[in-house]
Amino acid sequence: MRKTLLAVLTVLSSTVATQFVSETVFRQYSLCSTDCRFVTRGRSKIHCSLQCYADSACVFWAWDSNPGLCRLCANVAEENCAEIGHAVLPGYLRTVCQNGGTLDISRWRCSCFAGFAGDVCQRRIYDCSEGFHLNYPTRVYEIQPPLATSPFSVYCRMTFGGRTYIATRTHPDLQFNRTWEEYKNGFGNVSGDYWIGLEQIYLLTNNGLDNELKIEIRNSTDFHFQQYYYYFRISDESSYYQLHFASTKPNAQPGKALGDSLSPALGCRFSTYDADHDGDDTENCALRHQSGWWFPSPCNLTKGNPLGRLGQPGMWSGNPEDAFWFTDFGNRALLHVHMWLVM
Ligand SMILES: [Ca+2]
Q1: Number of domains the chain is built from
Q2: Fewer Cβ atoms within 10 A, N terminus or C terminus of the chain?
Q3: Which PROSITE patterns does the entry mention (predicted)?
């Protein structure tokens, strides 16, 4: 099989035509194709184009990625489509893989690099979970969820389905008592401690998938406790990034269950000291707790605030500005906090 394909490629590389047909043009011309006398299951766009090339009766191919149909067409209906014909194929194959991707003929697809993804490596990975499934290593990536108009940076830990970190807190130095604008856009350094930004969380979680939010809290450098939230997403800024999730459960391993302190905040809007959306008319909960968060009303219902001031190993100070997580973590101080998404 490989030898045959290499022979095909050799022929292709000697062909003069190098016209590159972009995705848009491809779709436009595929509408012109008629007499598609043959419909078959394809494995990829590249596979489809090679099948057409190998078939002397085929002058045009059309690839529908969902459900993976390859149409091999013997004719082109209108005059303005006739110029395409067979000539698109060599050019398409030569330039098909973008952004440093290489054509992997043995698997009929492009191998992408450096955080790119898609049929022809034409886009950034949507999130770290996609990068995990493409076998990318742990590091900072530029990602671009489908809703985002431009990429943004995030730390990806490529274990357990790929972790898209939205908050990393390992040191009390990074101040979390910030303005609405700072919480909206993010702050800190994605190589270390940071908050990714509410807008970024909105873009990441409104993807129609069951996004899992995982919250991990450490009381010492040795032990960590985790709680998971399913179908997690937040609304957009016009709803003040309202909090949604469908269910929750703790880490099932002995000694690793954190407990659920977030359910009282379900449906609540995000607040900061300069933007009070907590629903408690008597005070600003973000001011009391000296951080942004989804605070319920009244403020006293708040069972956890992992964005408060970090403490030392040991007991919680009792000061409302210090981070806490009462259910079931209790009166322990928070030393480290990590929050990440798994798509
Ligand atoms: Ca208030």
Answers
A1: 2
A2: N
A3: EGF_1, EGF_2, FIBRINOGEN_C_2
CA of 109 to the centre of ligand 1 (A): 54
Cα 299 to ligand 1 centre (Å): 8
- 337 CA → ligand 1 middle, Å: 26
- Cα–Cα distances (Å) from 263 to 210, 232, 325, in that order, read 18, 12, 12
Residue 289 confidence (pLDDT): 98
Find the 265 Cα to ligand 1 centroid distance in Å: 14
How far apart CA 295 and CA 266 sit, in angstroms, is: 9
Determine the distance separating the centroid of ligand 1 and the alpha carbon of 176, expressed in angstroms. 19
pTM of the model: 0.77
Q: What is the pLDDT of residues 145-188, one digit of tens each?
A: 999 999 999 999 999 999 999 999 999 999 999 999 999 999 99
CA of 149 to the centre of ligand 1 (A): 33
Of the pLDDT bands very low, low, confident and very high (cuts 50, 70, 90), residue 107 is low
Q: Are 166 and 273 in the same domain? A: yes
The secondary element (H helix, E strand) that includes residue 152 is strand 152-157
Q: What is the pLDDT of residue 16?
A: 26
Residues 6 or more apart whose Cβ sits within 8 Å of residue 232: 205, 211, 212, 213, 244, 245, 341
* Owner of token pair 């408690």: 280
Kindly state whether residues 199 and 102 are assigned to the same domain. no
Whole-number Å distance, alpha carbon 277 to ligand 1 midpoint, is: 6
What is the spatial distance between Cα 189 and Cα 179, in angstroms, rounded to a whole number? 17
In a domain, 148, yes or no: yes
Residue 111: pLDDT over 50: yes
- What mean pLDDT value characterizes the chain? 83
- Range of the structural domain that residue 83 is part of: 2-111
Range 248-259 average pLDDT: 94
Measured in Å, residue 282 CA sits from the centre of ligand 1 at 6
